[in-house]
Amino acid sequence: MIDLKQFELWFITGSQVLYGEETLREVADHSQEIANGLDQSKHIPVRVVFKPVVKSTEEIYSICQEANVAENCIGVITWMHTFSPAKMWIRGLNVLKKPLLHLHTQYNRDIPWSSIDMDFMNTNQSAHGDREFGFMVSRMRINRKVVVGYWQEEDVHQQIGSWSRAAAGWNDWQGAKFVRFGDNMRFVAVTDGDKVEAELKFGFAVNTHGIGDLVQVINEVSEETVDGLLAEYEEKYNVVDTLKKGGEKHQSLRDAARIEAGMRKFLQDGGYKGFSDTFEDLHGMVQLPGLAVQRLMNEGYGFAGEGDWKTAALVRAMKVMGSGLEGGNAFMEDYTYHFDPNNALVLGSHMLEVDECLAADKPSCEIHALGIGGKADPVRLVFNSKGGPALNASVVDMGNRFRLIVNEVEAVEKQQDLPNLPVARVLWKPLPDMKTGAAAWILAGGAHHTCYSQNLSSELLQDFAEMAGIECVVIDKDTKLSQLKNELRWSEVYYQVNSRL
After folding, report:
1. 10 Å Cβ neighbour count for 25?
2. What per-residue confidence (pLDDT) applies to 370?
3. For residue 177, what are the β-bridge partners?
4. In 354-433, which residue ranges form alpha helices assigned H by DSSP?
5. Spatial distance between the Cα atoms of 137 and 80, rounded to a whole number of angstroms
6. Helices (H), 271-332
């Protein structure tokens, strides 16, 4: 979907002129070696670019300003090889707009017991140089990631790599545009929200186009374009006989292909990264987009139903974060429960629109009646998903702040056939268990729409929330409702106080 190697993390090392030219050359050599080592790591999907060692207020301010306007720079890694007096960092940190990771490491792994002297100690002062820098970042109340460990350790690379994915998702939101075809589903609360505040907080814009604008583009799609998509469907999916050429529902497949081509052109022409629609606003459309939405999501577009622009944006960001990893990220909804006390499960699905990136096997392209929307029967892809560790994430508007809620889950293979359920579906067990997980989600105000992820971690999403400056609630194997209730109360107080600062 997106090549993360186009993005850069700038590796900036702090020192000072006090140490002299010889020491500073050694500092620069060590820093370049570390940056190159990180750049070559299989765990870090973006470039890590060495930048000259900074030694003064002016140099720090200049590099931070440069990072702000560098299009490919999505974040900054800082490391204090020596002692870098932190008052030098105030002006630069005040203007820095890119995400910050503080790497607390040192060039040498071990103490050179037999040869260590004061020259070595003066040069290799990360143990307290990074603490001086860390104080200033905390004093300035700047959100950042702190990674501790030897720079060649795999765990360190994995943490930096995970954080870089969060930074890529955050970068993708800056200046992004999402379109709503029609308005929010009538009377629904959680899918609505403050789009002005979202643009201020997140950097993306959400605006509405009437369905007529989209229908006009759909109607202009050529027959040749439709034929090309039909050939692709035949190759990629198990198309049921009624939809094939000569079948009684073949025209419905052509209509679905025309909708897909029209929506793709509208999104491309408008420079949109995601969209939403609603079955209550389909004037001029033949059928509710099902197949079209599933395929567009699989190409990387964010989507959520019923006007849910927040989840559409989250789906897009999580697709960017997971780019290149095995597994997918897709729009999802908790649909119904299996309350067997020995095997409690959630069946996740949606009316039509679950992304084929989750499919365990080759999807089936089918047509079935839909009891809402008042349109012709829609075409959709039907499949089961794979088992394994996963999570659901939701962004909600709490009035005075946005909250990201994450529930870790364990997906399971299908328990039995579902011959009469013509939708894509996933089965999972919420952590720590069904009752606690569901109660925690409800107490936190989590939406019924989510982004379901097979390849991202809750730590990565916490990093993403830090970059956005929003609250994050994680529900996992250690969650206890009594503690969660207290944390939600404490958080409420914090954000009430913080809004006045």
Report:
1. 11
2. 86
3. 205
4. none
5. 13
6. 291-298, 309-321
Cis peptide before 363 (omega within 30 of 0): no
Q: How far apart are CA 155 and CA 142, in angstroms?
A: 24
Mean of the pLDDT values across residues 474-492? 97
Q: Tell me, what amino acid is at 357?
A: C
Question: Considering the entire predicted model, what is its pTM?
Answer: 0.96
- The tens digit of pLDDT for each residue in 113-122 reads 999 999 999 8
Residue type, 271: G
Tokens (6 digits) for 138: 């905390």
Q: Would you say 496 and 400 are in contact if contact means Cβ atoms under 8 Å apart?
A: yes
Q: Are strands 302-305 and 205-209 parallel, antiparallel or unpaired?
A: unpaired
Cβ neighbours of residue 319 closer than 8 Å, sequence gap 6 or more: 1, 297, 300, 302, 328, 329
pLDDT in tens, 7-45: 999 999 999 998 899 999 999 999 999 999 999 999 999
* Rounded Cα gap, residues 342 and 243, in angstroms: 41
Which residue has tokens 């606690």? 436
**Under a CB-based contact definition with an 8 Å cutoff, are residues 181 and 61 in contact?**
no
Identify the band that residue 500 occupies on the pLDDT scale cut at 50, 70 and 90: low
d(CA 136, CA 141): 9
- SS3 of residue 216 by DSSP: helix
User: Could you give the C-alpha distances from 403 to 316, 322, 459, in angstroms and in order?
Assistant: 17, 21, 15
Q: Are 471 and 403 in contact (CB under 8 A)?
A: yes
| Rounded distance between C-alpha atoms, residue 375 and residue 377, angstroms | 7
Encode pLDDT of 320-376 as tens digits: 999 999 999 999 999 999 999 999 999 999 988 999 999 999 999 999 998 777 789
Token output for 271: 């420079």
Q: How far apart are CA 201 and CA 199, in angstroms?
A: 5
The answer to whether the CB of 452 falls within 8 A of the CB of 385 is: no
Separation between Cα atoms, residue 86 and residue 78, nearest integer Å: 12
Cβ distance 47 to 74 under 8 Å?
Answer: no
